[in-house]
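chain below, 248 aa
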Amino acid sequence: MPPRILVYSATAGWRHDSIEPSIEALKAKASSINVQFDFTEDQSQFTDENLAKYDAILFLNNSGIILDDTGKAALQMYLNLGGNTIGVHCASDALRDTPFFGKQIGAYFDYHPDIQESVVDVVDSTHPSTKMLPAHWRLFDEMYNFQSDPRDVGAKVLLTADESSYSDPQTRRFDHGTPHPVAWYQERGAGVEPGGIAGRSWYTSLGHCIEIWSDELFLAHVLGGITWALESKTTRAFNHDGKVGNAA
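prediction:
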């Protein structure tokens, strides 16, 4: 059976109008990477029993406090059992009251300048989520600033912002490291508790506009991140001894 992914797009703050198009785009691409997506905005699905069915959870443009205490505990257990995570765009603006989630994503969002054409530089062109990208990728999207450096929790940066390619009149309040991180991965997700089995974490801050979700290059970036996260060998997708994942 294919790897199974729970796509969670609940919001409790700002809601992007690209959420629905992004869901449709992922549905259309599921067979191309041989995965099964289950889509929900129902936080009651975050239980130990239900999450155990999934090889990864994809946090899609979430905002605010999107889980209650029961859901947060179930997510922590899922991570401790080797579950993988993928975060897209505004996912870094969710669950600010939950430090392990911030570590698993890599960093919390701070602010962004006005959306404009910008250039993103590829730091690692060998990763499945970047190997298809041009070295200097010009796109129309938001360039996020973060409240911390994802490298501090062990993340490896894949994409960085060319800050000379766009205008940001605001004064940065936090140090998110240099060069400016845009997308990254963690081989061992930092949200796992001591003694847990750390799965993988992948995050991209790109994905704001409706239009970008019909851009084949951007979709290849996201799909590459998903396939990489699934290959952690910590879930049943690639390890029959995994404690979580699709056991059908």
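The longest strand covers residues 116-122. Helices lie at 19-29, 48-51, 69-80, 99-105, 216-230.
thats it, cya
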